[in-house]
Amino acid sequence: MPFLNNLFGNLQDLISGWLAGFLPPWGVELAMMLITVVVLLAFLVVVVMYLTYLERKVLARIADRPGPNRVGPLGLFQPFADVLKLILKEVTTPQGVDYAPYILAPVLIVAPALLVYAVIPFGPRMVPADINVALLFVIAVSSVATLAILMGGWGSGNKYSLLGGMRAVAQMISYEIPLAFAFLGAVVVTGSLSLVKIVENQPGYPLALSQPIGFLIALICIVAEANRSPFDIPEAESELVAGYHTEYGAVRFAMFFLAEYIEMFTGSALVALLFLGGWRGPILPPYIWFLIKVYAILFFMFWLRGTFPRLRVDQLMAFSWKFLLPLGMVNVVVVALIDKLHLPGGFVPGLVAGAVIFAVANWIVGLRQRRPAARPAGAGLRVREA
């Protein structure tokens, strides 16, 4: 069991020791970096392929349908058929596109989605680079996807795509702010921006128990950041055909698709690391616990898509600016006070603090929504004397 608990660290030692027999130290380091990149890319591609399969199976179960069941046993080879179909399709470029942003958008949306995995730990000694501002790095790099989506919508030369791109910019910026406040609560408690140290410095219980409000805000915001239902306004088929990627097909569309599912996995991983204890758990190897928690959050996303209707644009924006943002700000203040005063943490104090946070934020929202009483008809009108 100790070997399995540190399986990837042991494999890294074996491979680097073997390479050291015929390569200089800088060559060993470079080779290990290349191996890490290849393994991560292969892992993420397989994850995305089978996330589509799992989502279709979950949605089929909710809708009382069988789901994919034709290609391979239980439909397990369906993702390979989908990838083959996208690769073999003809790549076309519509007339009237702004060529540079149209071509660069699919690349620019995938690159940052992959780059964040340089700092995301899957377990002890399972992170390519443990930098001391890893959380800030992830938030900063992930925000580049907003620019890529806008470039795709603008460059397509299509009004539906442009509207989808503008909606995406408004939505992603709006939900990044309360998401940052939710993450800030975990940073205050653990005292670090390193994702490895955030997991290691957590108390003996998940932070979701002592910060339920921050956990719920983060859970909602990662769904919105990935443009998933019920926050899929940028891709609303009923009014925008497919939104910002309407004019994309074949491999170019596959890159948007790949980035969306990688962002789902990234958001779920961040919530698992910050609020669910990361890879910590009994009996099973650490990386297994990490994947269990990540897939539990992904299942929550699938369930939302099969259950809730899409929000309107005004409802979506109001929910972020008028409710989640005040709630997140009050949550950070309360968490900082609890940490500064060294008050006891845990489930019961967390529930009490959560209730106080919710009540204060609700009061703030109520103050903002109050309107002066309507003036009676004719008030303020001066009647001209005969």
Salient structural properties:
386 residues, mainly alpha, 16 helices
Blueprint (SSEs and pairs):
Elements lengths: L1 H4 L1 H13 L5 H38 L15 H11 L10 H17 L18 H9 L1 H12 L3 H32 L4 H6 L6 H4 L1 H14 L11 H4 L9 H26 L10 H22 L5 H28 L6 H23 L17
Helix pairs in contact: 2-3, 3-4, 3-14, 4-13, 5-7, 5-13, 7-8, 8-11, 8-15, 11-13, 13-14, 15-16
Could you explain the architecture of this structure?
With 386 residues, the chain is mainly α. The protein folds into 2 domains: 1-88, no CATH class; 99-369, no CATH class. Helices cover 68% and strands 0% of the residues. It has helices at residues 2-5, 7-19, 25-62, 78-88, 99-115, 134-142, 144-155, 159-190, 195-200, 207-210, 212-225, 237-240, 250-275, 286-307, 313-340, 347-369. Helix 5 (99-115) packs antiparallel against helix 7 (144-155), helix 7 (144-155) runs antiparallel to helix 8 and helix 13 packs across helix 14. The protein is globular and about 60 Å long.
